[in-house]
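Progress report, Aim 2. The chain analyzed during this reporting quarter is listed below.
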Amino acid sequence: QVQLVESGGGSVQAGDSLRLSCAASGRTFSDYAMAWFRQAPGKEREFVARISRSGGTLRYLDSVKGRFTISRDNAKNTVYLEMNNLKSEDTAVYYCAADRVSGVYRSPTSQHAYDYWGQGTQVTVSS
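Predicted structure tokens for the chain:
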């Protein structure tokens, strides 16, 4: 089992920045690729960003490229999402997720690829 706890959400104005953190416990953190998803009211959960186990491979939703940065610190068992130039359309509950990378191919942008989820943190951006 892996436990994931997000933090860092809040209410900000358009153009502001936030940094989300996700602290992991329970298993070897570096064995897992990590991702952030988000879910806005009335919408499906969508992929935002993913980082490989070593941190060397990154992937982003097109609409956040150049504004969001995913990173990880394997020594601290933590993954981050730095969000700059926030827009009202970024308003959502943000979830971190862990993929144990079993060798069976699962689309990295699909929530079905992830084995563990945090409880989510709310980000609200006012224009």
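The chain has a mean pLDDT of 96. The first strand starts at residue 3 and ends at 7. These observations will guide the mutagenesis work planned for the next reporting period.
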